[in-house]
Each structure stands twice: as structure tokens, then as C-alpha cells.
């Protein structure tokens, strides 16, 4: 529809497999930059990415052409592949199954 308009801010959170503390300062920036670029490629501008050693928080504008599930499946899969193929850490990196996603009021 040519006259459709959406502006849905999504706060998404997902964790490392078994909540292992794998995201330390040595890979944090590389991982966040990669996730940001992947979301932008999917048509989802990113406001902020942050997290802890065992999980990530991302605030992004949802592309109305894509479901949140499809977006996060793509982001989680490609980012774990990025970490593993880059040999940034000694252990195998993986995300836990699932995620949390909340819509966020732009004015709040």
C-alpha cells in the first residue's frame, strides 16, 4: 500500500547459549558493529546496541516488510558465524534459542 506508514521501535534482547559470559571487551565492539551493519542491511536503522557478557540489547526501527522473528533469526545466525569464523574467542560461540522483543514508545 503506497499510503502506509509504520514507525515501530523494537527493544530486542537475546542471550549467549547457556548464558556463558563470552562477550568481553575484546569482541564487544566488533560484535555490536556487525549486528548494527546487519540490521541496517535488513532495513532496520539502529538507535543503540549494548549488553553484558552474556546477553545483548538492541533498539532498532523495525522494517515493516520483515517479521521480528525472521530479523532476529538472521542477525543471531550471521553474528555467531561472524564470531566463530573470525576466531575472536577460543570457545565456540552460539546464541541461546529465542529472544525477547518489546515495542517502545518513541516519546518515552
TrEMBL record:
Domain Transposase IS200-like: 5-108
One Pfam family in the UniProt entry: Y1_Tnp
Protein name (Swiss-Prot/TrEMBL): IS200/IS605 family transposase
The species this protein was found in: Flavobacterium azizsancarii
Lineage: Bacteria, Pseudomonadati, Bacteroidota, Flavobacteriia, Flavobacteriales
Name of encoding gene: tnpA
Amino acid at each position: 500500500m503506497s499510503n502506509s506508514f509504520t514507525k515501530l521501535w523494537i527493544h530486542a534482547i537475546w542471550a549467549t547459549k547457556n548464558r556463558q559470559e563470552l562477550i568481553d571487551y575484546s569482541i564487544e565492539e566488533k560484535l555490536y558493529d556487525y549486528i548494527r551493519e546487519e540490521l541496517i542491511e535488513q532495513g532496520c536503522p539502529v538507535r543503540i546496541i549494548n549488553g553484558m557478557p552474556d546477553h545483548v540489547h538492541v533498539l532498532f526501527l523495525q522494517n515493516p516488510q520483515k517479521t521480528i522473528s525472521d530479523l532476529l533469526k538472521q542477525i543471531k545466525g550471521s553474528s555467531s558465524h561472524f564470531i566463530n569464523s573470525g576466531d575472536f574467542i577460543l570457545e565456540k560461540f552460539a546464541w541461546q534459542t529465542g529472544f525477547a522483543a518489546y515495542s517502545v514508545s518513541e516519546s518515552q
